[in-house]
């Protein structure tokens, strides 16, 4: 991925910051008015208003309307894969619900896990899956959904469970050689993949260790209501679904396909279709109910599976707490998240077209008078781009290109830059509600960014860890001159 950085000599830093300040102010007021309902549509329009402010700044600095629209189109085009993945995740969640895959994962998870060990175990499970697949998104869409369900059944706050899922998933994503961002960061900085991973371990291992310790301590002090009621929850699941270990074939097949470097869309499509097939054999009564039919024939099976894939589906149980858990919005349920991503890409596209992104990055680069200042400027730029460009790839590409020569001039090895890009660009993207990653993860897990922000410990701690290493000059590798 080789993004072009648009520069505009007519634009100064104060003008570049006007749309950012306007957006943050409008979003803050909108969230104050609407609260959790802000993502139902009003935040999306606020992003368009922010883009309008940026466009006005652009017009005043000789940027044409056509140039802005072209950049917006390029930005939206870059999210094509993410949008399709979101639709397929919605489809997969639907068939995995009616087939009993998700209920089975929750059933056995409740038997194996308890509130004391649930949070650290969730971090480890998601880390292992994410390292194997190279994708935090795939991890969330498979085991992440099930673990959120288990946490809810155990009485653990959903924000806490989601924070543990994301901490593990993004650790694995960072450290996996299969990850796209883990390959992109060294490519931008000018080092090789495995040098990057080894060097990144210096900051990443302490961060995940602290995360695990915090979650272990939380587990020992957590008071939940789910422990005593686990038996009745298990009984309710058993009454409503045919629970079988054979159903694990479906998620394992998806994970195996991803490990074998199959494209995510193909793997998710395969998982969706497998879920539909397993639903017919393992849960025929549920398929009939979803279809609204009195007997299971080809027409009813087709209609039941298509309904689960496309629209709201729920399975009633004798336990009222499980009824909210055993529901899926299908592809329809993902449209709000897609809407948010499209509006965010409009804002990011206009900001790039008017040269605001490069102006902000250049201003931050000028502040780097020391080695620590250089690292701090890199971190600040990555964070700023996650907020303004709304895309984690741009948060790696733009600073990578802007700061590459500066690190070389300071005799710093390129792996210093690639590590800092990952520590501050990749993992913090999920902490911004209108970023593609934040929108995706909150949509898939069904937990708002505001609810999981504090508990996504690994994600917000990572940039502090890289700054700590820079401040005390720990493992800051110098460039070897030949």
Protein architecture, described:
There is one protein chain. With 482 residues, this protein is mostly helical. It is built from 24 helices and two strands. A two-stranded antiparallel sheet has the order 1-2. The longest helix is centred in the middle third of the chain and has 29 residues, at 193-221. It is globular and about 70 Å long. The model has no long low-confidence stretch (mean pLDDT 87).
Our measurement of the CA-to-CA distance between the termini, rounded to an integer number of angstroms, reads: 30 Å
- Segments where pLDDT lies below 50 for 5+ residues? none
Q: Helical proportion? A: over 70%
Order of helices and strands: HHHHHHHHHHHHHHHEHEHHHHHHHH
Rg over CA atoms = 23 Å
Adjacency order of strands in the biggest sheet:
1-2
Put simply, the count of helices is 24
Main sheet overview: 2 strands, antiparallel
| Relative strand content | under 5%
The global form is globular
Mean pLDDT: 87
Tally of DSSP β-strands: 2
Structural class: mainly alpha
SSE blueprint:
Layout: H1 13-34, H2 42-60, H3 65-78, H4 80-98, H5 101-112, H6 115-133, H7 136-153, H8 158-175, H9 180-189, H10 193-221, H11 230-240, H12 249-259, H13 264-282, H14 284-291, H15 298-310, E1 313-314, H16 320-325, E2 327-328, H17 335-353, H18 356-366, H19 371-388, H20 392-409, H21 414-426, H22 436-445, H23 449-452, H24 457-471
Antiparallel strand pairs: 1-2
């Amino acid at each position: 991925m080789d993004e072009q950085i648009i520069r505009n000599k007519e634009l100064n830093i104060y003008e570049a910051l006007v749309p950012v300040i306007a957006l943050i102010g409008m979003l803050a007021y909108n969230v104050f008015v609407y609260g959790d309902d802000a993502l139902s549509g009003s935040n999306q329009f606020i992003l368009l208003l922010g883009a309008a402010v940026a466009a006005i700044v652009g017009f005043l600095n000789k940027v044409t309307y056509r140039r802005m629209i072209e950049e917006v189109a390029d930005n939206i085009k870059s999210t094509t894969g993410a949008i399709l993945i979101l639709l397929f995740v919605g489809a997969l969640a639907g068939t995995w619900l009616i087939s009993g895959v998700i209920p089975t994962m929750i059933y056995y998870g409740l038997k194996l896990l308890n509130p004391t060990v649930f949070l650290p175990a969730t971090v480890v499970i998601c880390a292992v899956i994410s390292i194997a697949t190279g994708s935090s998104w795939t991890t969330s869409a498979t085991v992440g959904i099930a673990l959120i369900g288990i946490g809810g059944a155990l009485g653990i706050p959903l924000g806490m469970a989601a924070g543990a899922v994301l901490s593990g998933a993004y650790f694995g994503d960072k450290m996996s050689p299969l990850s796209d961002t883990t390959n992109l960061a060294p490519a931008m900085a000018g080092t090789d993949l495995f040098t990057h991973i080894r060097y990144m371990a210096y900051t990443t291992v302490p961060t995940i260790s602290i995360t695990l310790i915090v979650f272990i301590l939380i587990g020992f002090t957590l008071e939940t209501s789910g422990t005593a009621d686990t038996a009745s929850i298990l009984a309710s699941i058993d009454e409503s679904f045919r629970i079988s270990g054979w159903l694990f074939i479906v998620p394992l097949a998806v994970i195996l396909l991803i490990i074998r470097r199959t494209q995510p869309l193909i793997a998710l499509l395969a998982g969706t279709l497998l879920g539909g097939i397993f639903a017919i054999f393992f849960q025929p009564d549920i398929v009939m109910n979803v279809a609204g039919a009195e007997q299971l024939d080809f027409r009813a099976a087709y209609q039941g599976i298509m309904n689960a894939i496309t629209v709201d589906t729920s399975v009633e149980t004798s336990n009222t707490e499980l009824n909210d858990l055993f529901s899926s919005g299908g592809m329809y349920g993902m449209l709000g998240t897609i809407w948010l991503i499209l509006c965010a890409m409009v804002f990011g596209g206009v900001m790039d077209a008017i040269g605001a992104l490069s102006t902000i990055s250049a201003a931050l680069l000028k502040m780097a008078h020391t080695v620590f200042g250089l690292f701090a400027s890199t971190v600040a730029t990555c964070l700023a781009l996650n907020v303004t460009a709304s895309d984690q790839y741009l948060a790696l590409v733009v600073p990578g290109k802007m700061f590459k020569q500066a690190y070389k001039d300071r005799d710093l090895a390129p792996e210093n830059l690639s590590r800092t890009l990952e520590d501050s660009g990749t993992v913090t993207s999920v902490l911004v509600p209108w970023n593609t990653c934040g929108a995706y993860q909150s949509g898939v897990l069904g937990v708002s960014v505001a609810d999981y922000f504090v508990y996504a410990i690994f994600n917000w701690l990572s940039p502090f860890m890289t700054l700590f290493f820079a401040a005390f000059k720990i493992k800051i590798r110098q460039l070897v001159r030949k």
